[in-house]
Structures are given as structure tokens and as C-alpha cells.
Give the backbone structure.
Amino acid sequence: MKMTLTMKKRIKKGMKGWLSALPFIMPGLILVAVFIIYPMLFTIKISFSDYRIVTGEITNVGLLNFKNVLFETKDFWYAYRNNFLYALVTVPLIIFGGLIFSYLVNNLKKGQSIFKVGFYLPVITSWVIVSLVFKYMFGNSNTGLMNYLLVDVFHILDEYVPWLYREWTGNGAIWLMGVWKNMGWAMLIFLAALQSIPIELYESASIDGAGLWDKFRFITIAAVKPTIYFVMVNMIIGSFNVFIQVMLLTSGNPNGTTSVLQYLLYNRAFNKFEFGEASAIGLISAVTIVLLTIILNKAFLLDRNGNGE
Amino acid sequence: MKKSLTLLLFMILGLFTMVACTDTTTVPEDITLTFWHTYGDSEEAVLTDTVLPLWAAAHPNITINAVRQDGSQYHEMVVMSFGTGNGPDVARIDISNTASYAEQGGLVALNTFDDFDTVSALYLDGPLSTSLYKGSYYGLPLDTNCKAAVVNMNLLESELGLTEIPATMEEFITAATGRGTFSINVSGVGDWDLYPYFWLFGGSLTNDEFTQATGYLNSAASIASINKLKELNALDIFTIRDIDGTADAWAGIQDTYVMFFEGPWYGFSEDIVAATIPTYNGRSASVVGGENISVFSTSEHPEAAYEFAKFMTSEAVQLAMLTVGQLPILKSLVTSDAVLANPKWSVYMKQLESAQARIPSPNNDEIKTIWSNAMTEIFLNGADVTATLTAAATAMDAELD
């Protein structure tokens, strides 16, 4: 009897707490439910269905969409490969470049703000505008900057290269743009981490006879390690959201060899009206990202606060 | 007295009701139709300043809300509108998308309207056929175009030694052989780019009913056509920009290319002129482009929308839009003075006689991909022509109804 009373009291107290908190969390909850939870559940449903967009008719087709996506053409595997390659190539470059530049900027006595703004400018510049600039850079014939420099100015190549219409040069342009666009963000995050390192650590290391390299290795790198993990996880997840540069630079050409998952999804939905297959691609991307995040957390032993051990 | 008063009141009420009913039938309800289009600045100016006032004068109770959409994202916007139901009543859409929109149930079959047979008899057969899907017409042809030859007359004379545009491709090829640089350019391997060359050199895609590609796309004539293009490429006569990394057509035509095929929407000059595509083995070829005007299923006023669609294809509107380069789709205007008097329009209207439509199919995008993938394999990766065309024909068969 006493037990029931205590339970009732606890429930009542809990309910009271929830009721008083509800007005504050309700707007957020509603927004999350409408714009994240519902579309997510709807996407999962569509991925197992044939969806007619005008009539809204949804017919269950089981795993057919997944079968079509995975086994009917090579498109998916090219796109999947390219997402991993994008991560493999751009993430180390972004981290390395971001770290180097943040270290250099941090050691500047004057003009830090100018460099910070300069490095961060690509991050806030529109993807569309940057894509168009890269398109001109890698344009055909002598109308493209790269061709003009390599063929007409420095005579390194004999013939013009259709950069964006070749598998590896097209992918290279996409990677280069990713690195250029994201390095400023990594630089700024690293800079914040560097500035949080107590100066006393460097001073005591100097007293102990540590050189520049030792200080960089044992103090700087050690101190920014959790930040490196943070940047890495974000960038790897971001690698599976690559879209605009692919659409504007190569459109997946030639023959889908420069495509990525998000572009494939877009193409299936908007050009082929295959919303079921598009949702299946979205679901596969989501599962891949979740798995990658779990693996990365395990591999780098991230604790609950995101600190690497 | 009371009874009489009640009766009188009922009579007055009845009279008011009758008057109200009469008013509804005689004075049409004011409605607004939303019209989506992707006209450029000059076309939009004619639409706003000339065409819509004509409509307003004839239909004062139907207001047109003309909305100019971004051309590069237009298809996506239409697809989104299908999903949200917030689409236009009537829209100008690309001919190549008509069948796929119809298949999705997004468009109204216009042949269900009583006067469709009379109206459709006024249109050119080619443009009208682009809105045909499974026996129904899902749009009226609004404007048409095709590719014709764009020739640099100076280079024709100085580089090829020809003072006039040759009537045949054989003459052109003979003159261009040995020049040492490309004389003909095409941008890429897509359908709009390469079909005219493929057809010109004898290739065919499907049977006349568009139901089978095997036996056509991989026929001896089609294989020979692709081999001819490969041969011209090897001889440095014909270049595909995306494959060879060569200059864009309009940049190259200034000082390198002698000829390429293009639609009527760019500026020509005294030296760079439009001409009908030279024949090969006695036949010319081109590809039909253009737009249809369609009524959306979500429209609350399909009859009024159809009325507006018909109005946009009327002679007065077609002539007004011709002034800004929209080629007419009316049979009555093909030989009109307005067309014949203009050297550019007359060339394109003449070229339309030998222009073919792309395969009208809801799977148009898949068919385009099959074609461009096959051409990429052949021209970029050096794949075997016969095997590649046979595989492409099999894949295309699966996409044809």
C-alpha cells in the first residue's frame, strides 16, 4: 500500500514536471516531429513502395526498390564508391590543411582577423557560385583556366583536357572544390582549440628544453586531438551529403562515374519519378552514416563528451 | 391578412432567388488562372505587353497570373507541384517532358474537350505529336524549333574554298578533308546534340510506332552512321567538345569551326548565318524541339485553362511571339509573309520539314541516358560499335511501351 502511494506520488510529480516543461519544449517537439520525424518515417515507408506523386497512391513492393538500386545498374556502386573516395581524399587534406593554417594564423602577431576572414570566406560563399567558378576553371579548350595555363602558358600538356568529362579528373575537381570550400571551417575550429591551450604549457616545455617540433607534437597535437576527431567525424558525415558540386560540375558524367549518392537520389526522384528508389538510396545513405559514426566512435574511443582518449 | 402577407413574402423571396439564379448564369464568375512559363526577357515582354492585353480584352472575367519560373529548376518545380498540389492551372512545358508528366497523372487529356479535333487540325503534325501519350493528347503545341546549320561564311571560303554553303554533306566533307583542324562541332553526346548527325548519316532509333529499338538502333545503317562519325572524328573534321576537350560551338565558330547545328535562339551576324543542314545521301535531318502548353490536373478551372491554351496557339499570339523567335506551330503560318520574309525563320521552318521528334515516352530520361551512355562508351572509351548499339537497343526496348 505504501509502495503504491509512493509510486503514485512519483508519477504525479513526474507529470507535474512534464506539464510545466511542456510549453517550453512543445514548439521544438512539434517542429522536429513535422519536419524530421514524419518525413523520415514517410521516406522509410516509400522506400518499400511504389509512390505516385500526383495521386499520392502508395503500393507496397517489398524490397524491389532496394533490389533495383543495388543490382540493376552500376550507378549505385559508382556513387557509393565516390562518396567513400571523397571522404578518403578530402578529409585528411582538410584536417591537415586546417591544422597547418590555424597554427600559422595563431602564431601571427598582427592581421589574424584578415586571415581568419580570408580562410572562412569560401565557407560562406554560395556552393552554386563556387561551382560555377570551378566550372570555368576546368572548362574545355583554352576557355578553361587550367587548360589555358597547362597548355598555352606553361606547355606542360600538348592537348586540352575535358576535365569535367573524364572519370578521374572530374572526381578530382569535385574533391578539390570540397577541400577548398571546407578547409576554412576546419581552420577556424582548430584555431579555437589552439587558443584554448594554456601558454604555461609551452613555457614549462621550453624550460624543460623542448624544441619547436616537440612542442607542436606533444602539446599542440595532443591538445587538439579531440577537435581533430570532431572535425573528422563531421567531415566524414558531410562526405555523404555531397551534391551541389556534382550536379553543377559533372552531372555524374561520364556515365555516372563521377556521381554520388545524393545526386543519384535526386536524379531518380526528379528525372525518373522513381520516388521509391530515391527513398531507398536515402535510407542506404542514412544507414551508412549511422554505421560510420558508430565505427568512428568505437575506433577513436570517443567518450560521452566527444573527447578522444 | 396574415396568410396574404406570408404569401407575399414567399413570392418576394422566390423572385429574389430567381433573379439571383439568373445573375449567376448570365454574369460569369471572375476567376484567376496561374500560368507558369520560362520565357526570357524579350519573350516575357511580348507576353505581358501584347499577348495578355489581347486575352484580357476578349476574356475580361478571366485574369491570367503569368509566373516566370527559373528555367534551370523548372522541371523540379513542376514535379514538386505535382506532390503538393500547388501547381499552376496551365503551363508551358518542354515537349520531352509531356509524356512523363502525363504518365504521372499530372496533366489533363485535352482531346476530351469537344472542339479538340477542330483545333488540333490547325497544328503542324510534328509538334502536335509530341503531346501524344497512350492515345490521348496532353497539351497543345505552343512553339517549335529545330536545329539548322550555323555557318561561318568567311571560314567557309578562306578555309574550305567554298563560296556558297554546299547543298550536300559529301561536298562539305571533301572540302574539309585535309584542313588539319576540326570544321564541324557538336557539344556532347546527348540526344539533342547527336541525333541530327546520327539521322543525317542514315541511323534510326526505333520503328515508326516507337515500340522497338532492336533492329533499328543496331541496324547496319545505324552502325554505319556511328562509324561515319568516328571516321570524321579521326579525320579531324568532326569534333565532340565533351569528348575531345575542344572549344564551345559559339566560341569556335568565330575562328575555327566552319559549321555546327543549333536552334534559332542565338544571334546571327552577316558572316555567321543559318542554313538548312546539307543533305547526305540525298536526305537532310534535324531534331524537333519546342514547348507545349498543358492544363494541370490540379486546376480548378480546366475549361478556362484550356481556353487560354487555345488562345496562346491562335494566329495573333503566334505572330506576336514570332517576333521574339518563337517559331509558330500553325500550318497556316508556315508560308506566311512574316516567316518567309525573315531569312532566319524561313531557314528553320524549312528545316522543320526534315526534322524528327525524339521518342515520345514517359521514360524519356531513361532513354536519353541509355543513348548518351552508349555514345560515351563508343566515343570516349572506344567500345565496339555493334556490340554497344545492340546492348543499348535491348535496354531501350525495355523502356518503350
User: Anything to note?
Assistant: Chain B has two domains: 26-145+289-348, 148-276+363-399. The interface with chain A takes residues 75-76, 79, 82-83, 100, 103-106, 241-248, 251-252, 297, 363, 365-366, 372-373, 376-377, 380 of chain B (CB under 8 Å). The CA atoms of residues 44 and 68 of chain B lie 8 Å apart.
